[in-house]
Model the fold of this input.
Amino acid sequence: MHISIIGSGYVGLVTGACFAELGNHVVCADNDIKKIACLKKGLIPIYEPGLDELIKSNLKKKRLNFTSSIADAVNAGEIIFITVGTPSLENGEADLTGIENVARKIAKNMSGYRLIVEKSTVPVETGAWVKQTVSAYAGKKHKFDVASNPEFLREGQAINDFMHPDRIVLGVESKKAAELLTALYKPLKAPILITDVKSAELIKHASNSFLATKISFINAVSQVCDKVGADVSKVALGMGLDGRIGKDFLNAGLGYGGSCFPKDVDAFIAISEKLGYEFDLLTAVRNINSRQREFFLEKIKNTLWIIKGKTIAVLGVSFKPNTDDIRSSAAVDIIRAIQKEGAKVRVYDPKAMKKAAGALNKTVTFCNDAYSASKGSDCLLVLTDWDEFKELDFLKIKKLLKRPVILDGRNIYDPQEMRKLGFTYESIGRKSKD
Ligand code: NAD
Done:
């Protein structure tokens, strides 16, 4: 099939590369000219395991092309996926200017029937607006359909998620749209749920908000554990063994971050309010999430007393492991907060340092590994749970640190083990008595 993808970021590139890998002819477009120039040369602007190889091999097979001309992309594909960003506005609503802009460009450049598919995460009723916009701006009157096909991939395992999804949701208004999208996704052999457009849009916001709720729930439980001296990881295990609850998304820590959960929770609260429903549950989820970072800062102060003038080693800046994405990363917030208090910060992250260097205050020292970050530091903070941090030589770290103090925001070490090694060790909701 001939497919165009407009917006070549995390979702657009993975979607484009995977559809090409499945044998389709794909054109990926973006209005970032520099990004497209790099992609044409096979230089991938993001870190996502396996993406580099997939793009290069499909470029070679000429099944994947890149363009900065949206008009060319609209011309090339019968099915056009919109995968531009939908960031938060100040008031929490989703900023849909990118979607509207692309809808107008599609309208002006259509040269026959087009199936326009929203893959970006958008509030309910965006499909209706896209349809209205395309009708209003269409140069020649060509038939078109608008569909919603929300994306559920996770950064860090995006290709596997795309190729082996739990479900594919297709919100459609016509038989033709349902047939085209069902045929396109058939090779994945995954369950396909066909709904109306509004329900599909809501499935995405509801799913992400539910997952965020699970995280905030266990973080709230971790606060009670901290106060009473219980272990939240054991509580989570005991809860998760109940099949109705499930063990996923029950890791207490610094809270959720990234480019999706915070903005999608905000956008779901905002659209619900606009429609006349106060989604109080989600407001609480959001508040618990931001308080979790504040609690961690208090833990740092309770351990170090004065932060001003201290050197603090930080492991992890990305919002989660296996990605270089630092958008709404708890680590970035915490680094900024300790810098504001006057700390010198030494950071190590396996993949996100380049992006972090662009976002953080210039006084941060970026280090080659965890050991170099620890050298001469008054304490060590673990802010992202990269696997490589689980296998460090702690006797070496202890010698390098000025004081053997570790504050683990992701609960990746065993408290007893760390104390046995001679560390003052603090984590989240695991203040179990020795
Ligand atoms: P991104 O910022 O990585 O990529 C968006 C791309 O769109 C950028 O390259 C940008 O230059 C381009 N763009 C913006 N406006 C454009 C325009 N008018 N014309 C052409 N290109 C334009 O964002 P992302 O992480 O890929 O997310 C895209 C959408 O997918 C968002 O709505 C997001 O919520 C959703 N989503 C993201 C993930 C994820 O894990 N990143 C998962 C599921 C859904």
User: Anything to note?
Assistant: The first strand starts at residue 2 and ends at 6.
